[in-house]
Amino acid sequence: MAQSGLDPKDWDAFRAKAHEMLDAAVDQMAGAADHPWQPLSEDPAKLYAIRDEASSGTFDPTSLVRRLREEVLPHHGGNIHPRFWGWVQGSGLASDFLAAMASVAVNANLGGRNHGANEMERIVIDWARSRMGLPETASGVFVTGTSQATVLAFQAARLRVQKNLRKEGQKGQALTAYAAEGVHNATKKALELLGVGSDHLRSVPLRSGQMDFAALRDMIRQDRAAGALPFLLVGTAGSVDLGLFDNLDALADAAQAENLWLHVDGAFGAWTRIADNPYRSLTNGIERADSIALDFHKWFYVSYDCGLCLMRNEEEHRAAFAARPYYLEGAESGLAGGEPWFCDYGIDLSRGNRAIKVWAALEMFGEEAIGKAITGNCQLAALMGQIVEEHPEMSLAHPVVSNICAFTADKGLPSEEQSELNARIATALQESGEAVFSTTKVGGVTVLRAAIANHRTQEADIHEAMKAVAREARRG
Ligand SMILES: *Cc1c(COP(=O)(O)O)cnc(C)c1O
Question: What's this model's pTM, rounded to 2 decimal places?
Answer without folding.
Answer: 0.97
